[in-house]
Design goal:
mainly beta, five-stranded antiparallel sheet, about 50% strand
Length: about 300
């Protein structure tokens, strides 16, 4: 055996052949295990129940398992649990998909919370203000993802109950920007203006909903725009053709019953098997003018 180091504490096997625990004063560290044996650190509560374990962790299925008392999986990690055996925190590599917390094999994961316990992860800034929250918020809503400004106001929140993502708030407007592989802005939801825009790969604005003007613009220079509305059977029912400048609609049989032809400056209403009418109403919803496609009549009420 090597010469003893002053202040060093060692625990060896009964024969003294193997060192199992070392307290190293110069490195200020405690080493458990080695020389062919794995080391564990276990902390028990006042009643002798394990509440903290660092090292080898066994997962048990209980009496209904293949062998009562035998572990169904073992892995190396850290586990914190209550005195009645409910896991609170699990960190480590799980080599078996039979363990309940993680589904994939050979996955390294962190599991917080468990039966009867909700989990929360807080990331605070240098001023001890919460900036990021994962898990249970202060209103006991679970599954939240929240980012707050330095003033403590929510600027991003994901609500799992409504599957909704909120961006901006508290005097801080939100934007959602999607960039391509070249770092170019392609899609933008502008929370300050209330606009939605899409650019093509050449930077041309192809889609813009302008909330200030309540206007939708589709297409741009060198790239004509179309608006197509399909039914539940994926059939085109309405189309605004930016290339031809036409607007048309079909009935359920596929017959074109409405067509504005910009080239001929003509409006066509009705089609085979489906007569067309043009009706004009006044402010009290009364019919004042009617072009009747079935009878070929035109009439006007005073």
């Amino acid at each position: 055996m090597a010469d003893p180091v002053q202040g060093k504490f060692e625990v060896q096997t009964e024969s003294g052949a193997q060192t199992r625990i070392v307290l190293e004063p110069e490195a200020a560290e405690v080493v458990a295990g080695g020389n062919g044996a794995a080391g564990d650190v276990v902390v028990n509560d006042a009643s002798g129940e394990e509440v903290v374990r660092i090292g080898r962790i066994n997962e048990y299925q209980g009496s209904s398992g293949p062998q009562p008392g035998a572990p169904i999986a073992s892995y190396t990690g850290i586990r914190l649990r209550t005195s009645d055996g409910e896991n609170l925190v699990q960190i480590g590599r799980r080599p078996s998909a039979t363990t309940p917390a993680l589904e994939e094999k050979d996955e390294i994961g962190v599991v917080l919370g468990g039966k009867g316990f909700s989990a929360r992860v807080l990331i605070v800034d240098k001023d001890k203000k919460t900036r990021i929250l994962l898990g249970q918020d202060h209103s006991d809503n679970e599954g939240r993802f929240i980012i707050q400004s330095s003033a403590g106001k929510k600027i991003l929140e994901f609500d799992p109950d409504t599957a909704a993502l909120y961006v901006g708030g508290g005097d801080n407007e939100g934007d959602v920007i999607v960039r391509d592989g070249g770092g170019n802005d392609r899609i933008k939801l502008d929370g300050g203006r209330g606009d939605v825009s899409v650019d093509d790969e050449d930077g041309r604005r192809l889609f813009l909903f302008d909330s200030g003007a309540a206007a939708l613009y589709v297409g741009g220079t060198g790239n004509e725009g179309d608006v197509i509305v399909r039914d539940a059977f994926d059939r085109e029912r309405i189309k605004l053709d930016g290339g031809d400048g036409d607007v048309w609609a079909t009935d359920v049989k596929g017959t074109r019953v409405f067509h504005f032809d910009s080239g001929a400056a003509g409006l066509y209403v009705g089609g085979t098997g489906n007569e067309g009418d043009v009706i004009v109403r006044d402010g009290q919803n009364r019919q004042r003018i009617k072009l009747d496609g079935g009878y070929g009549d035109i009439w006007v009420d005073d």
